[in-house]
Amino acid sequence: MRRVADLCDSKMYVMADRDDDILEGRLQVALRRPRNVLAPLKSVLPRQVTTMMWRPRVDAWLREFSPDIVHFHNPHPVGALAMVAGTCIRLGIPYVISTHGFVEFNEFSKGFGSPRWQRPLLERFVRRPLVKVSRGAARVLMLSPQEEPILRSMEVTSDRMSIVPNGVDPYFLDTPEESERIELVNRFRLPKEVPLLLFVGNHTFNKGLDVLLRGLRNMRERAVVVIAGAIRSKSENEKLILSSGLSLDDTRFMFTDFISKEELRALYHSVDAFVFPSRADTLPLVVLEAMASSLAVVSTNVGGIPFEVTPGTGILVPPGDPSALAEALDSLCRDREMAQKMGEAGRRRVSTHFDWNVSARLALKFYEEVIATSLH
Q: Residue 136: helix, strand or coil by DSSP?
């Protein structure tokens, strides 16, 4: 939206923990506290239940701003999305929606490991409202062509589907200072005698970290996996490791816990390949960042990942398959020249196809088409 704001007058409404108005470049951002009827019970109710009940105080803001079009970027929580979509319809404001999270929400068992008894509830209170909002959208902006079957299953017609992919943060196209990289290597004591494989992401079921740890057991080549991302709790982390059949003191993996953006860029430039065994993802930014950093990628053929990682830039394996993952990682560890060529090809692909400025111009083009149609 910062890039869109360079092209047209734009305001952004964000549910936040405070009321404030800030400026991000030319983008006007309204931070507003939402309401939640279950807030008094948050200490006794599951977090997922209270999260679903957050609602923005957006009606008066929309009336005051009176936009020509509204763009929804995130479907979570779906109840809030459905509420604002209904407000747009009442006020006669056309809206478009990007497909962030559609892959995960379309198949709960794959994305979140939801138990069978939860699925009817998720269908009723999550997927069904998302389908209704998508059907009412003037345009659905897909992040990749792979999402077309999902939208067809939601009865979104082809004439309302357009592709506006994510872009890569240009920060990751720049090479860090060597001193930054050396400092990071020394801080985490990264070994130099074996290939280093990097995972970046939340340590949640849909990201497949358990598959990565089990795959590590199956690898024949010596390697160390560096696992970046905040550790939610020490006990959960230890349980994850032990359930994967590894010991807590195994030297084939290491966790960094939370790292800054600067540290992450230095880390991308200190490893040999990137691994991302996601079970469900729409178009993960970390994959683009790794490719921008000239890393070969081993990931899964789910969601829009095949749109990012094409033949010659990495290797895709079935989700949830530690043996296939281990085989792919072994092949990169054995053939460092192949890994380097894939990394170079990946950087070229990201630089050419995933640019936020191009995506902003595409979004504006579709805004104008929708507005022109709504005026007739």
A: coil
Residues 6 or more apart whose CB falls under 8 angstroms from that of 13 comprise: 30, 32, 56, 58, 61
pLDDT in tens, 26-45: 999 999 999 999 988 888 88
- Whether 76 and 114 map to the same domain: the answer is yes
Residue 237 tokens, joined: 């982390």
Q: What is the DSSP string of 251-268?
A: TTEEEEES--HHHHHHHH
pLDDT single digits (tens) 204-237: 889 999 999 999 999 999 999 999 999 989 999 9
Pair 157, 101 in one domain: yes
Sign of CA dihedral 278, 173, 179, 195: positive
What torsion do the CA atoms of 262, 310, 142, 369 make, to the nearest 10 degrees?
A: 100
- Segments forming the whole domain that contains residue 261: 170-353
- How many structural domains is the chain composed of? 2
What ranges make up the beta strands (E) of the chain?
Answer: 11-15, 20-24, 27-32, 70-72, 95-98, 139-142, 161-163, 196-200, 224-228, 253-257, 273-276, 296-300, 314-317
Percentage of residues in the chain with pLDDT exceeding 70?
98
The SS3 assignment for 279 reads coil
Mark whether 162 and 176 lie in a shared domain.
no
The first and second tokens of residue 325, run together, are: 């993952």
Who's near 189: CB < 8 A, 6+ residues apart? none
Check whether residue 84 and residue 210 sit in a common domain. Answer: no
**Three-class DSSP category at 72:** strand
Is the pTM higher than 0.85? The answer reads yes
Which residues on neighbouring strands pair with residue 210, listed in sequence order? Answer: none
Query: Token digits for 114?
Result: 């939801």
Residue of 272, 255, 278, 256 whose CA lies nearest to 325: 278
Quick check: 375 and 143 in contact, CB under 8 A? no
- Residue 330 neighbours by CB under 8 Å, 6+ apart: 219, 220, 221
Give dist(CA 62, CA 113) in Å, integer: 37
Q: What does the block give as tokens for 99?
A: 């497909």
